[in-house]
Amino acid sequence: MAEKPSIAIGQVMENRSVAPGHFLLTIRLPLSFATPIPGQFVMIRDPDRDEPLLPRPISVYGFQREDGHAILNLLCRVAGRGTSLFSRLNSGSTLTVLGPLGRGFTIDPDVRQILLVAGGVGAAPLAFLLQECVFSKPHSAKRQVTAYLGAGTAELLTGLNRFEGFCNLRTATDDGSCGYHGNVTEMLALDLGEYDAKSTLILACGPMAMIRSLDLLLRDTRIRCQVSLEERMACGVGACLGCVVAIKEGEGRNGYRRVCHDGPVFDIGEIHWNPPVEG
Amino acid sequence: MEADKNTVVPGRLAVDLCGLVLKNPVMTASGTFGYGEEYAPFCDLNRLGAIVVKGLSLEPRAGNPPPRIMETRCGMLNAVGLQNVGVRAFIAKKLPFLRQFNVAVIANIFGETIDEYRRVTEILTHAAGVNAIEVNISCPNVKKGGVAFGAHPDAAASVTEAVRGETDLPVIVKLTPNVTDITEIAQAVESAGADAVSLINTLTGMSVDIERRRPHLANVTGGLSGPAVKPVALRMVWQVIRSVKIPVIGIGGISTAADALEFLITGASAVQIGTANFIHPAATMEIIDGIEDYMIRHRIGCMQDLLGSLQTDG
Ligand SMILES: Cc1cc2nc3c(=O)[nH]c(=O)nc-3n(C[C@H](O)[C@H](O)[C@H](O)COP(=O)(O)OP(=O)(O)OC[C@H]3O[C@@H](n4cnc5c(N)ncnc54)[C@H](O)[C@@H]3O)c2cc1C
Ligand SMILES: Cc1cc2nc3c(=O)[nH]c(=O)nc-3n(C[C@H](O)[C@H](O)[C@H](O)COP(=O)(O)O)c2cc1C
Ligand code: FES
Fold first, then answer.
1. Which of B98, B224, B54 is nearest to A240 (CA)?
2. For an interface test with A, which of B68, B216, B219 has the most A Cβ atoms less than 10 Å from its Cβ?
3. A113-230 topology per CATH
4. Tens digit of each residue's pLDDT (9 = 90 or more) over B152-199
5. What's the rounded Cα separation, in Å, for the pair A11 and A14?
6. Which fold has domain A6-101?
7. Residue B169 domain boundaries
């Protein structure tokens, strides 16, 4: 069960560039901050600035408790104004951290093989999941974990060190500078036949194009797959209905679900790719 | 014994809003606080003056396709399109949660036809636990109803009359700023039996992604809210206060106690906090505390002495 979220003042302990346009934030939080479940996210905002107004959603990349504090790691890509300002935060600056929020990944007891599929910074929530699998769950020994990580170039395979040595690892780059030359879904397609559909679970996070191609790839298989989705958010807590995705509801009915509250993790089969437009 | 003006007098912040006595003048704005439960981890709901819930229609509504929101300078655009669970599911699934708290619940309603407004009102009036009805005749993000009623005095009056005829609960009519003369609409709904008016709803706006040469919102246009709209909202509140006798609830860009005080001093009987909840989930709590601090600092014993205390020359 997810613990109760809170709003906390965090202090930036370290802000490190890990690749061009990518940075790793380490934030110290009060011990009372609830333990996140992999796939959950936080909303962060610089309280010393009037703008940007809205907090930005970022997945939990790492979380530990030490020396009377909770330590949160976030792996971020500069996408626009808000993330660009975060990338320039100095250690010692404060951030408000709202969370942990949303519904994370769920791993059924019958799963024997986990495949982690990530594009770019989509690796962040999966690295946290791996951390939890490796270090805390006693029954995880019976599970194989294989990660398929893709990015534009070798340099942009951020978070690689969080996978190396902890699971089987396959990498793909668009320019062929590391691992498979092509995208991560194509690489996965080559291996897919080797996995037993009944006991395999895919957990994925990445750009919408990757998720879409994954959906097409898995359509004829029985392999379960959960994906973490992104949408623009305002509140992050389910109140504004701003962050919805179209979901199939069965019997030809469709509806919108909140990424922040009903997700961000959804079963890939739930996503409605061509929803009817309603006024 | 004379009350010590430097201590918190119980009830110092209380306001009487058309017969509805509120602990303080700070409410949440419809559509920005869900059904209350979403913010319960961050706010003590018992401390709020009132909770105005997300707009309710007769049947559930799916709302507009995403993207629905876009941040703009000092504000945000939204085109949610009144997605909601429907009035019956609200009563069955959401209202019981709110009733656990000692807070007034105001149901914001919306219809595509006058009859729909009437039926939603009827259902809410028979459900125990709703303290007032706020009639949204001003949503810019739906194709039918909403703003069409809010933009014409006669149509606004017809909706108000229909709702008034169906309930003994206080009826608050929420006005749109997207009109030439808001006082005309305010006067029309006052004559039609509204107990109060609230304003403003969002200002229709637009924003374009120049890289993709597409609008940022799937709906093309959306409603602007947040700090950017505050001066416009305050001006309209000021105009409406001078043109009607019923209480006016101020809404628009209120983010701090100072913002709220500007509206109260101008003469709003209460305020609603919207977009600020997204920026800071405990904004309402800080605004209530800040108003109280201000009253202590200025030795103001009760709300009546503060409301409408604006001095203007001429
Ligand atoms: C649940 C969730 C988890 C996320 N986790 C991470 C993470 O771990 N690391 C990371 O780097 N990024 C993550 N993101 C994406 C991140 O939130 C956006 O990149 C960020 O909000 C952009 O803000 P900005 O001000 O920099 O850009 P803006 O100027 O606001 O926008 C720049 C571009 O980013 C897009 N964008 C804006 N907001 C979002 C959003 N909420 N989701 C997706 N795209 C958006 C816009 O459409 C635009 O194309 C996550 C998003 C969600 C919803
Ligand atoms: C995401 C969002 C949803 C809204 N939904 C409703 C609604 O359902 N009914 C309504 O009357 N107003 C709705 N509003 C308008 C607000 O209640 C308020 O009038 C407006 O946002 C201005 O106040 P603010 O600047 O404090 O946000 C909504 C506003 C936002 C931002
Ligand atoms: S961001 Fe407000 S409902 Fe999801």
1. B54
2. B68
3. Rossmann fold (3.40.50)
4. 999 999 999 999 999 999 999 999 999 999 999 999 999 999 999 999
5. 9
6. Elongation Factor Tu (Ef-tu); domain 3 (2.40.30)
7. 15-62+82-206+224-305
